[in-house]
Amino acid sequence: MDSGFPDRIPWIKAAAASRRWMDLARVGNYGGSAGGQSALAGLLQHGDFYKAGVADCGCHDNRMDKIWWNEAWMGWPVDESYERNSNVTHAAKLDGRLMLIVGEIDQNVYPASTAQVVNALEKAGKNFDYVPIMNAGHGAAETSYGKFRRAGFLIKALGAPGQAGGPKTTDDASSGLNLTLLPSMN
């Protein structure tokens, strides 16, 4: 699963060359649904670049998601490519800080998809944050509580101005927290 990372990472590096407020030591990503799958894949496949990620309601294993949807992108029949593209299969490769958010009553991507990743991460002895949001459906990270937890996690994981691990300079007021944080898209 490349989710555009082979193109996106060089683009971010090139952009940082002319934008001194972009701190490549503190790059994170987040996303929901297929973007949640990609946010976690960024940490599993490119943990040397992405330092933190928030995966919301991710369809982490396409073998258990809506098969009609996945067949449109991955083909039929289900073959070994589905396993190769599964975050569950690669969970032991986690490098970086991870928060998994899931809506308790998500009927688009069932919470069991995130539960499989949680199980694989636990078996691999990985440290991560798991946030089930009660009475929330698909896109739980966009609830007020989800936004609160995501923001707090990313600030803690990537640092804020004036904190250890934060940016070296904060003289560019337009740069906000001086984080390089881009949503994952799929």
* Most strands sheet: 5 strands, parallel
Report the strand count: 5
Global morphology: globular
Measure the end-to-end span: 10 Å
Strand content: 15-25%
SSE string, helix = H, strand = E?
HEHEHHEHEHE
Rounded mean pLDDT is 83
Share of helix among residues? 25-40%
Unreliable spans: 167-180
SSE arrangement:
Elements lengths: L4 H13 L9 E6 L1 H13 L3 E7 L10 H8 L5 H5 L12 E7 L7 H13 L5 E5 L10 H15 L21 E4 L3
Descriptive report:
- The chain is an alpha/beta fold and 186 residues long.
- It is built from 6 helices and 5 strands; from the N terminus they run H-E-H-E-H-H-E-H-E-H-E.
- Strands 4-3-2-1-5 form a 5-stranded parallel beta sheet, sandwiched between helices.
- The termini are close together.
- The model is unreliable at 167-180 (pLDDT under 50).
Summarize the structure.
The chain contains six helices and five strands; from the N terminus they run αβαβααβαβαβ. The longest helix has 15 residues, at 144-158.
List keywords for this structure.
5 strands, alpha/beta, 186 residues, five-stranded parallel β-sheet, 6 helices
